[in-house]
């Protein structure tokens, strides 16, 4: 399809969800373009799972309208389901079946054409690096291998949009990196739109765009760089021979108000790395050490929600089975 003519992967307007007295989602608008990797962040209980459930047709909105790849979730739920793949936190693989059998079982559910199926199964197992284990029982797989097989299964019917709810939660750092490598390949080779929730900042950094949800409302949306630019300038931390004289010089010569911290001075400046040489040569005080700290997505998250991204999440445990 020519560029610009594809409907957005996700187009949601005024979506709410109420459970009795609980307003889980309070009127959200979301647009995700085809081919984007979109990160959905929020503290526990913010409404992420409820939103994904509505986007996937697993829950009906109390109000509002959702279109997935141009199909209305209420009016055309079957078309929506064909357009999406799901990888949720709880594994739904059958441990007593092999990797290939799990994929074929899924193919039956979607009534995929049998003629092309073997090639598709092999291609998806290859995409997630499980070709060698195609005939092994899934109960012998590590956590990382299972997650990769679930991703392969979610992609089997060539969905336009893949939903991943915490795809790397509980995996060790090496395995998380593997999963991201496969997701990048999927983006490149299958041109799949990816919509994911994550608690990991470095994963959120890898997204094209991010929305932060808190208390059922979208409180920020944009590229990681856009979101960070809203939080403010870089922080420069200086250790000098004479902090009192340095603070005075910062104020009088550079118009910067310094605050003291653990034996040093801290100032805020746009483009801190560029400001450092002028500061060092213009202070008139010997500078021992300089650190420039750029705003992080955690700063963004804190700015909008008053919490750190992981404050309310139990630390994810490492995958005991590993991935080697
Ligand atoms: N079936 C339900 N019945 C009643 N309340 C619900 C139901 N599902 C969710 N809620 C409430 O809606 C709010 C949003 O929950 P949701 O699970 O969507 O949040 P979340 O952002 O996915 O959180 P987490 O990161 O913990 O999974 C919470 O207050 C939750 O208790």
From TrEMBL:
<dbReference type="GO" id="GO:0005524">
    <property type="term" value="F:ATP binding"/>
</dbReference>
<feature type="domain" description="ABC transporter">
    <location>
        <begin position="10"/>
        <end position="240"/>
    </location>
</feature>
<comment type="similarity">
    <text>Belongs to the ABC transporter superfamily. Drug exporter-1 (DrugE1) (TC 3.A.1.105) family.</text>
</comment>
<dbReference type="InterPro" id="IPR003439">
    <property type="entry name" value="ABC_transporter-like_ATP-bd"/>
</dbReference>
<dbReference type="Pfam" id="PF00005">
    <property type="entry name" value="ABC_tran"/>
</dbReference>
<protein>
    <submittedName>
        <fullName>Daunorubicin resistance protein DrrA family ABC transporter ATP-binding protein</fullName>
    </submittedName>
</protein>
<dbReference type="InterPro" id="IPR025302">
    <property type="entry name" value="DrrA1/2-like_C"/>
</dbReference>
<keyword id="KW-0067">ATP-binding</keyword>
<keyword id="KW-0547">Nucleotide-binding</keyword>
<dbReference type="InterPro" id="IPR017871">
    <property type="entry name" value="ABC_transporter-like_CS"/>
</dbReference>
<dbReference type="InterPro" id="IPR027417">
    <property type="entry name" value="P-loop_NTPase"/>
</dbReference>
<keyword id="KW-0813">Transport</keyword>
<dbReference type="InterPro" id="IPR003593">
    <property type="entry name" value="AAA+_ATPase"/>
</dbReference>
<dbReference type="InterPro" id="IPR005894">
    <property type="entry name" value="DrrA"/>
</dbReference>
<dbReference type="Pfam" id="PF13732">
    <property type="entry name" value="DrrA1-3_C"/>
</dbReference>
């Amino acid at each position: 399809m020519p560029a610009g003519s594809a409907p957005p992967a996700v187009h949601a307007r005024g979506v709410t969800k109420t459970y009795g007295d609980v307003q889980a989602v309070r009127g959200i608008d979301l647009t995700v373009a085809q081919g984007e990797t979109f990160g959905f962040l929020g503290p526990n209980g913010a409404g992420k799972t409820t939103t994904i459930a509505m986007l996937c047709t697993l829950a009906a909105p109390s109000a509002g309208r959702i279109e997935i790849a141009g199909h209305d979730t209420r009016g055309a739920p079957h078309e929506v389901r064909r357009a999406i793949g799901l990888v949720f936190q709880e594994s739904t693989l059958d441990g007593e079946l092999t990797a290939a059998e799990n994929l074929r079982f899924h193919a039956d559910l979607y009534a995929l054409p049998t003629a092309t199926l073997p090639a598709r199964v092999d291609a998806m197992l290859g995409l997630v690096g499980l070709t060698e284990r195609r005939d092994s029982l899934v109960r012998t797989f590590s956590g990382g291998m299972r997650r990769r097989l679930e991703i392969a299964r979610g992609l089997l019917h060539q969905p336009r949009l893949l939903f991943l709810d915490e795809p790397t939660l509980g995996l060790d750092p090496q395995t998380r990196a593997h999963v991201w490598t496969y997701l990048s390949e999927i983006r490149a080779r299958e041109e799949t739109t990816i919509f994911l929730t994550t608690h990991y900042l470095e994963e959120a950094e890898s997204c094209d765009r991010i929305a932060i949800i808190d208390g059922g409302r979208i409180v920020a949306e944009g590229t990681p760089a856009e979101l960070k630019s809203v939080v403010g300038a870089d922080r420069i931390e200086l250790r000098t021979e004479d902090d009192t004289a340095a603070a005075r010089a910062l104020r009088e010569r550079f118009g910067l108000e310094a605050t003291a911290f653990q034996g040093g001075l801290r100032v805020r400046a746009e483009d801190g790395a560029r400001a450092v040489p002028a500061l060092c040569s213009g202070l008139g005080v010997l500078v021992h050490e300089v650190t420039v700290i750029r705003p992080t997505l955690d700063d963004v998250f804190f700015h909008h929600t008053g919490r750190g991204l992981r404050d309310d999440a139990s630390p994810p445990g490492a995958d005991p089975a590993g991935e080697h």
